[in-house]
Design brief:
The complex is a heterodimer. Chain A is built from 18 helices and ten strands. By secondary structure, chain A is α/β, with parallel strands linked by helices. Chain A has two domains: about 200 residues, Periplasmic binding protein-like II (D-Maltodextrin-Binding Protein, domain 2, 3-Layer(aba) Sandwich), CATH 3.40.190; about 170 residues, D-Maltodextrin-Binding Protein, domain 2, CATH 3.40.190.10. In chain A, strands 4, 5, 6, 7, 8, 9 and 10 form a seven-stranded mixed beta sheet that branches. In chain A, α15 runs antiparallel to α16. The longest helix of chain A is centred in the first third of the chain and has 30 residues. Chain A is globular, with a radius of gyration of 22 Å. The two termini of chain A are about 30 Å apart. The N terminus of chain A is likely disordered. By secondary structure, chain B is mostly helical. Chain B has one domain: MetI-like (MetI-like fold), CATH 1.10.3720. Chain B is built from 13 helices and two strands, in the order αββαααααααααααα. In chain B, strands 1-2 form a two-stranded antiparallel sheet. In chain B, a hairpin with a 3-residue loop joins β1 and β2. In chain B, α1 packs across α12, α3 crosses α9 and α9 runs antiparallel to α12. The longest helix of chain B has about 35 residues. The chains are: A alpha/beta, B mainly alpha.
């Protein structure tokens, strides 16, 4: 049933988003013809960052400048380039509260009390109350909801939000998020995995630090497909007509299709995007795809409405463990995508100092390990996989064989090994014009 | 002086409603009209360019979904009328002391949220849910048959959700009819069928008219049923507008399409009023 209520919340949020988009439109109309000053100032910010190959991560905490932050230490001060905007200056004292907007089912929950144990522990340690809001159902919808406030320079009500990588790139491009002072994030500096550092969407982690990662691949149910799945093209196999699913998030579906054409998304030209569109359009018109899904594919895959679908790794691990043991996840031979949801501090945040505390808290093993054990995603924190295996051992010693097995499967499924990572690629950073062109082509595929 | 004041009173009564409509209908409409004629993007801001060319453009782009929405809405209106009329008739003339309970049952679904009701259809009609699953196990349906993600599911969901909007006005119209009129008709040698066609039905027309509008108009613009129960090939105009607003942030296109939809509905309603006879409205 949790998926039903999840759908419900999602649709309500979508309605709310439409409301705020309308408010924005009204704002636009009243503001008349001049572009908003905030939006135009965004142009001067380091937008089109060159994409760096993942893995060549150099842990640069140097992006932060020390100006205006008395707490800043030598470790972080180093080489701030003059073009970098000054980091968000926290209030001198903690406010004692912080508002964190995140995705649903993305934190550990005590099933009996309904409380969040890791957040409780944080409050105990720091005295900061966390208002945890499961408000992000879809990157675009959420953006549509906060965009009017950000464009008008009003507070969004959030101190931390955790959208996905490509949306982070857009938020940075529009100047909607604050640069981070790394000296206030010592645990991040010490414990972040190299793989997650200096990412393509935010070079040097100037504005964002990862929350959780995962892989976009294919989820399938072998009892329904009748065979093991290895390739993206299996999604287009007429044998699965009406029982195959794709994502409604444009960037995921288009990038996976581009990969299946043998092109890395970051190298994709408009010709490649057109080719991806052509590849999907025919099958889409022939009724190959049951639908284009947001999070609701989880339900359809678990109940067997879908035999094969694009999927996010952590979700499939969850279905496998708790709902339908038949379901499997695979990175197609043409490649999968590494997605990372990241914590950022939006403009107008009212509890910045508290936000830093909470962001850094997730980079302690005491917080990161229980979090991963519950939600099943790929943690950006060093040593989490090892800790999960240790906990599995402890559970086994204590006689809880079931939990031990679950933890071991989770450690294996959620934390991709070297080979798997070799076949995982990044998204392309899209300019506004490219985004529009990609969206137009994708809309033709999605709308019958 | 007194007389002048008295003359003003009816207008004063209109002030609250008028202000409300100006603030929440007229102003947003004008703003939407303005946005639809602007060009630009989130990054650069929007500029008024009197871009009327956007209208033929969005009509061409969304023609499939627009015509599909109108066809669906027509089917739904007729279906609710066919289902709702006998219902309302029975409640009005044969309801007796159960009348109030029956009416309560008609509006009972409103006690749960619209979305929950639609989502439960998803559970009921799941490919291996208890309806289809059972039929498949009995060998009555092919194992790959599905109802969800088809026009049938979307039209079914819409019909279910909007049925009360048809039943209630029909009931009100029928309830007002004096049964003695029908008795009089039969006394004057009308057959029962004739009495229904010549007396009951014409007197119920205001209900048919109001019910059709209450069902047709929100159905054309609905996106939740198509979103939850449909697939790519059942996309309605509401889904397109929603996608333009939220996923692609194409505010001018979305605003323009909103006006196109409104114009289409107005034209259709005007034709309908002309055909059925607007005088029925005033009865």
């Amino acid at each position: 049933m949790h998926n039903l209520s999840n759908d419900y919340a999602h649709t309500l949020k979508r309605l709310a988003a439409i409301g705020s988009a309308l408010v924005f439109v009204v704002g636009c109309g009243i503001a008349g013809q001049s572009p908003s000053p905030r939006a135009s100032s965004a142009a001067s910010q380091p937008a089109q960052a060159t994409s760096t190959p993942r893995g060549s991560a150099s842990a640069t905490g140097s992006a932060a400048t020390a100006t205006g932050t008395p707490v800043a230490t030598a470790s972080a001060a180093a080489t701030a380039s003059p073009t970098d905007p000054p980091p968000a200056t926290p209030q001198p004292t903690l406010a004692g509260e912080v508002v964190f907007g995140n995705w649903p089912l993305y934190i550990d929950i005590d099933e009996e009390t309904g409380e969040y144990p890791t957040l409780e522990a944080f409050t105990e340690q720091t005295g900061i109350q966390v208002s945890y809001q499961e408000d992000i159902g879809d990157n675009s919808d959420f953006f549509g909801r906060i965009q009017p406030d950000l464009a008008a320079g009003n507070p969004t009500g959030y101190d931390i939000i955790a959208p996905s990588d490509w949306m982070i790139a857009r938020l940075i491009r529009l100047g909607y998020v604050q640069p981070l002072d790394k000296s206030l994030l010592p645990n991040f500096e010490a414990n972040a995995q190299d793989l997650f550092l200096d990412p393509w969407y935010d070079p040097g982690n100037t504005y964002s630090i990862p929350w959780q990662g995962g892989i976009v691949g294919i989820g399938y149910n072998p009892t329904l497909t009748g065979r093991e799945i290895t390739s993206f093209d299996d999604l287009l196999d007429p044998e699965f007509a009406g029982r195959a699913g794709l994502f409604s998030e444009m960037i995921d579906t288009m990038s996976m299709t581009i990969l299946s054409l043998g092109v890395k998304p970051e190298d994709a030209t408009m010709a490649d995007v057109q080719a991806a569109h052509d590849k999907l359009l025919g099958p889409a018109q022939a009724g190959q795809f049951r639908d284009f899904y947001d999070n609701s594919y989880v339900d359809a895959l678990a109940t067997g409405d879908l035999a094969i679908t694009m999927a996010w790794s952590g979700d499939v691990t969850n279905i496998e463990l708790y709902e339908n043991p038949d379901v499997k996840f695979v990175i197609p031979d043409t490649g999968g995508l590494l997605f990372v949801d990241n914590m950022v501090i939006p403009n107008g945040a009212e509890h910045v100092a508290d936000a830093y505390k909470l962001m850094d808290y997730w980079y302690t093993l005491e917080a990161a390990a229980p979090l991963s054990e519950y939600i099943g995603y790929y943690s950006p924190v060093k040593g989490v996989r090892e800790q999960i295996l240790l906990d599995a051992q402890t559970a086994r010693d204590e006689g809880d064989e079931e939990w031990a097995t679950q933890l071991e499967r989770l450690a294996q499924d959620s934390f991709p090994d070297e080979d798997a990572l070799d076949n995982v690629f990044n998204y392309k950073i899209l300019s506004e014009e490219e985004e529009r062109q990609w969206n137009d082509l994708f809309s033709e595929v999605v709308s019958g | 002086m007194r007389r002048r004041l008295r003359g003003l009173v009816p207008y004063l009564f209109l002030v609250p409603g008028g202000l409300w409509l100006i603030a929440f209908f007229v102003v947003p409409m004008l703003v939407m009209a303005s946005v639809s004629l602007q060009e630009g993007s989130l990054g650069t801001g929007y500029r008024m360019t009197w871009n009327f060319g956007i209208y033929p453009e969005v009509i061409a782009d969304a023609w499939t979904q627009l015509s599909r929405s109108i066809v669906y809405a027509l089917i739904v209106t007729i279906a609710t009328l066919l289902i709702g009329f006998p219902m309302a008739y029975t409640i009005a003339f044969r309801g007796g002391r159960f009348k109030n309970i029956l009416l309560l049952l008609v509006i009972l679904p409103f006690f749960t949220a619209f979305i929950i009701r639609t989502l439960s259809w998803k559970l009921i009609l799941a490919d291996n849910g208890f309806v289809l699953g059972t039929l498949k196990d009995l060998g009555l349906l092919a194992p790959t048959t599905h109802v969800l993600a088809s026009p049938l599911a979307v039209i079914g969901g819409l019909t279910y959700n909007f049925l009360p909007f048809m039943v209630l006005p029909l009931y009100v119209a029928l309830e007002k009819i004096d049964p003695h009129l029908m008795e009089a008709a039969t006394d004057l040698y009308a057959s029962r069928r004739h009495a229904f066609l010549r007396v009951t039905l014409p007197l119920a027309m205001p209900g048919v008219f109001a019910g059709s509008l209450l069902v047709f108009i929100p159905t054309v613009g609905d996106f939740i049923n198509a979103d939850i129960l449909g697939s790519r090939d059942t996309t309605m105009i509401g889904n397109v507008i929603q996608r333009l607003f939220l996923a692609t942030n194409a505010y001018p296109e979305a605003s323009a399409l909103g006006f196109v939809l409104m114009a289409a509905v107005l034209v259709l309603v005007a034709i309908y009023a002309r055909v059925v006879g607007a005088r029925e409205l005033t009865v």
